[in-house]
Structures are given as structure tokens and as C-alpha cells.
Design goal:
The chain is 3% helix and 38% strand. With 536 residues, the protein is an all-beta fold. The longest helix has 6 residues. About 22% of the residues have low confidence. Strand 35 and strand 36 form a beta hairpin.
Length: 536
Amino acid sequence: MDEFGVYAVFGPHEEAPRRIVDASRPGKSTVAVKQGVQQIVLFTRGRWDKCTSITVELNDENNVLILLGKLTPFNKCFSWELWEDGAWSNGATLTVQLEGVKSEPYTALTISQKEYTPECNSAALVPRGAVGKRKRSRGEEEEEDKAKGQENICPNASEKATPHRRGRNSLRAGQTRLFPQKEEQTTTHTPQNPRTKAKQSKTPTQTAAVDSPSGRWGQTLCQIDPQTAILIGGQGARMQFCKDPIWKLCTEDLSWVPAETLAEGPTPEARIGHTATYDPESKRIFVFGGSKHKKWFNDVHILDTQSWRWTMVEAQGKVPPLAYHSCTLFRGELFVFGGVFPRPHPEPDGCSDSLYIFNPEMAIWYQPIVNGDKPSPRSGHSACVMQGKIFIFGGWDTPVCFNDMFQLDLCLMEFSAVQTNGSTPSPRSWHGCAVLSDSCFLVHGGYNGNDALSDTFIFNTDTSCWTSLTLPQLTSVPRAGHSIITMATACTKDSSDEQDEFSESSPQTMLIFGGGDNEGSFFSDLITMPVKDVCE
């Protein structure tokens, strides 16, 4: 194995790696693997001088795409293990192709076996037919196909009880499935709405439409300039992680562009329950945490929106793997609170009540000393920074759902409970939240342990008062795990240098994307509303 090549080991009985393709005979290849293979490990050996990346494609016996990813210098190995569900029980085809090497096509190889779950690699998928610069591999995306029914389970399962509701759809050990799957009923759905822009995706095994994201929940959406927002991650029908994980939204015409091929460097592995936070000073997006099946993340990925390059931070300090946490930006630092973390087996996953701060300049995590009345452990809550404080609302710690509110004074580093009045929202988690003004933020939808919700509320931080809103565009379809942002859009057709920066005087638009209805449907619609219409 002296020269560069791609090798595979088909376990558990095959010992010697099998060369599939190499630089001397590049091109496309396939290998047939007998039934009963428990594991496949695909890896490269040698220097990457003559090759830029290796495309890996896995199709089932009907030639329907299961996995599309890449091996790159950043991700040199994929691993799949036999999964209990048997989605590949009738065989599959693995296609491997060297890229960046001028070559003649080579014969193909095929794979035939049962389902495998990649465990080792951090590769994310790309939509079929995507073009442009390629970055890191997407290999483990096929885990999504196998671990269906395992991710959308509320991971936190604490035995303690706190005020409010116990979910009736609980699984073992107090776990609750967020969106119970109905085998034949699971669909990706675009609700009927006059403002809907994105088209619904096709069946779970098909590639997402190239002009809009597939239906999903648990994704992130963040604004990077007055005309652009970036969508990252999420999970859709049949508990599959989206094969089109990164999109760019142009708010001028509400068009979507697949963005996975636009940036170089190692992209984050497909995930759900992560956070993506944009820093307007450095013009970078910070992606932290999340989970994928039984895999948990505490990595930090940075997307520089000026150079369009991904980097993974080798941070100092300690932060546990977290998902469904909150992350807010204050004075250039990321404040991470709560979330689900994995406990050693056989204990169920638990919720955190800790606060961690990440300093990007020093690339270090640290825990500040905080005083006061700290919120109880929770996940799926919302948090927003206003008036030098972080306001934390709602959340979930199995079997309890919350509707309380806490604030963290960022000058005193002191927590305190907020005594609210008015029309208080019912307990919920995985709701959408967006800042509307200097003193108001909006809460919409969510999940209460039994059902997805569609109601909308505004909280005024000056009066500590909740106000219930009736917005037909939002109340027509219950949803949870969706994204809501407000964007300072350009106010005139005249382009000026000033419009390149965020302007408080520019008209604000609220955008709502995706989510699920707890009935097996996952949405790909995009709703837009002027903020002034919401606040009136």
C-alpha cells in the first residue's frame, strides 16, 4: 500500500484490506459484498498529491441513493456497521471514484448486505448533482437512513419532577419521541400558505430538490447580512438526516442556493440540536454541539463568510457534548446554557443547568462564576440577549415541560427568575424565538410533550408582560423544531455601502422556516412577515 489508494475492509471475517481504486488506475469502481457482512471500513492510504477528493455513493438494490459523501484529506475514513433495521437487507451498491486525477473510467464494484451505521466519521451529505468546490466528506450521512426512529427521541430523561406536564407518548426510561413516526404516513410536507416559498421535498430516499431545502426540523438559520441567511443541518422524514444540510437564502427574491459546495474546508458532520451563531464583527458563524443518533458533539466549527471556508477549532478547556442547548453572543463570546448530555449507560441522558463560555480569540472554553436563582436543568429552551441580559424561556427535562422565565445579568453574572404577567404561554420546548425590538421578543409554536403547538406570544422585557397574538399565517399549522429569525432588509432599491452593514433603521422582516407537526410531517415552507405587522 505504498502508492495512494482507497481500501476497504469487509468485516468481521475479512482481515486484509482490499484495494478498491488507486492513483495508477483512477476512475469509478464498485464491489459486491455478501450478505452477513457486519461492518465496512473504507479508508485511504498514501499522499493526497494527485487527488483532491474521493466520491462515495451508496445505493440500495433499486439504485435509490442512500448515501452520497466524500473522502478528503480532512476525512480519510468511513465506517458502517450492520444496523438492526435491515434497510439494506436486499443488497446495496457502493461506488467509489477518485477526483482531481485525469483518468479513464474503471470498472465498478458493488455492495450487498444489511444496514450499517457509520460511527467514526464526521462527513456530511451533499445534494445529488451539486457542483462547485468540494469540501470534506459526507459519509456518515447514511447513518441517518439506518438509525431511523432513534434520533427524534427526547434525549433528556431525568427522573426528577418539576411543575407541569408529563408526556403521554413516553418511551422507555421516560424518553419521549418528539415526532412519532407512522410508517406509511411519514411525509415531507409544505403547508398550504400564500407566503410559502420553498417546495416540498420528495420521498425520504430521494435527493432533495435542487432549488429548495428538504423538509426538516432541528436545523439552524442565521442571518449573515441584510440579504442573506444560512441554513445548517436538520432531520427530516423517517428520522433521516438531511442529505442537503447547508443552504443559502437570498431574501431579495426568497431564493435558495445549495451552499454545501460553496465553502472549502471540513464541514460539520450532519446533526440536529446544534446551534449556529453569527458574529457580525468577525463575520463568522460558530456551529457548536448537537447529536446524531447515539453520537454527541462538543466540537466547534467556524464558517468564515468572507473567505467561505470552514475550520474546526481545537479548543482548550472543557465543555461536555451537548444538544438542544442555547447559544447566545455577547461581546464576542458565546454563552452556552443547558442542553442534553449523554450519561454513561444504562442511565438515561440528562439535562444540564451549567453555563459555558467560549472565547473565540483564545479558542478556550471556561465556566464563569454565577450567582442567584439558576434555572433548573433543561433542553429545547430558547435564549436571547436583550438589554445586557440573557432571557431564557421554557424547555424540557423529561417528563417535565417548562414555561418559566429566567434572566442572566451579564454585568453581574447573576441569574434571577422573572415574575411575568399577562397571557403566559403554556409549557413548551423546541419552540421558535426571535427578537423583534430592543424590548420585545416573540415565541411561537413548540412541543408540549404530546402535541406540536401553533400559538404565538410576545414578551415585553420592560413590563415583564406576555401578550398573545392571533396571526393566521402562523397559527394555521402547528410546528416545533422550526427556525425563526428577523432580518434587517434593505429599505430601498438603491444600493449603497451602508446597506452592507446591519441597520437598525432598515425595515425588519421575520422569517419562519421548517419544523414538524408531531404527526409525521416535516415542513420546507418559508413564511415571511414584516415585523411591524407582528408588533401592531
